[in-house]
């Protein structure tokens, strides 16, 4: 598809303005209508003089959820862009290649087996044990996929996808076993978490997500030139002075950590890491210096839109946002498979 590219500065301005509008919309839209004026006033420092119930809904429910949505969407999009550059194929995605499944299994292990501690030490579990086990599961899955899909000739897309399917099946079996041994309360907690939802946003989770976003973005952006060289092939990147093994190892660890943290906080949210980097390339091209920031902004924007749909489609009932992203992303994945089928054999 030929798309006319515009300057990065114009792209940034349009993207950031769209994100700010989506932020205000996310605060305004819901079962209780809040005007855009009140939404904007609530974001300003100082006394707001808003009605008590409006102020409560904004600051206790919608603003935390919106901020978490921005951080999670940006992390998933950055990790997707990095993985697609690292594997050098457009089908790499934390969910499709098994990272989310492994991270989900690790998080579920912590949630279900340490359920008594969730009641007595919720902060320790939510920002400690659950993210750690999610990261561990995601890291193991990532290593296995990369190890199975890579040989001396490079990375095989077919083998990588099959490895992701196998790891997803193993993770599904593990989740089924954990469901079987879980008590009623742990099972309810896990069921809500497993569909991917931003409804349980907490300030501790938001803090963890934004700290992770800053660290992941900073590190990945510093590796942008190396990723650009990597697009030419491992041998070419090595000739250009890139430490290929260190680059692969470090970026895999960073992406596994990012996906593990998002899965631990919100549950699995699919297809953001697959779709957004493609949109970013269509807009700004393959240069990771512009692709990574654009992907971060678009990831936050698209997840905000998906969350607004999840909250509003069947109001006052709420759909898990993971269902909405799957509905939006699955057709795009089918399109990519059809487009790439002549090149992935």
Descriptive tags:
345 residues; mainly alpha; ABC transporter involved in vitamin B12 uptake, BtuC; two-stranded antiparallel ribbon; 15 helices; 2 strands; globular; membrane; ABC_BtuC-like
Could you please describe the fold and organization of this structure?
The protein has a single domain, classed as Orthogonal Bundle (ABC transporter involved in vitamin B12 uptake, BtuC), CATH 1.10.3470. α3 packs across α13 and α4 packs across α12. Helices cover 77% and strands 1% of the residues. Strands 1-2 form a two-stranded antiparallel sheet. It has 15 helices and 2 strands. It has 345 residues and is an all-alpha fold. It comes from Photobacterium aquimaris. It is found in: Cell membrane. One of its GO terms (cellular component) is plasma membrane. InterPro entries: ABC_BtuC-like, ABC_transptr_permease_BtuC. Pfam families: FecCD (PF01032).
In summary, what is this structure?
With 345 residues, the chain is mostly helical.
By CATH reckoning, the class would read Mainly Alpha
> How far apart are the termini?
22 Å
Helix content: over 70%
User: What's the number of domains?
Assistant: 1
Helix-strand category:
mainly alpha
Low-confidence stretches: none
Task: Give me the CATH fold name.
Answer: ABC transporter involved in vitamin B12 uptake, BtuC
Helices, by number, come to 15
Strand order across the largest sheet = 1-2
Total number of strands:
2
Shape: globular
Q: CATH homologous superfamily, by name?
A: ABC transporter involved in vitamin B12 uptake, BtuC
The largest pleated sheet is described as:
2 strands, antiparallel
Indicate the CATH architecture. Answer: Orthogonal Bundle
Kindly estimate the percentage of residues that lie in beta strands according to DSSP.
Answer: under 5%
Rg calculated over all Cα atoms = 20 Å
Write the H/E string, N to C.
Answer: HHHHHHEEHHHHHHHHH
The mean pLDDT is 84
Pfam families: FecCD
Protein name: Iron ABC transporter permease
Transmembrane segments: 6-29, 66-83, 95-116, 123-146, 158-180, 192-219, 251-279, 291-313, 319-337
Membrane topology: Multi-pass membrane protein
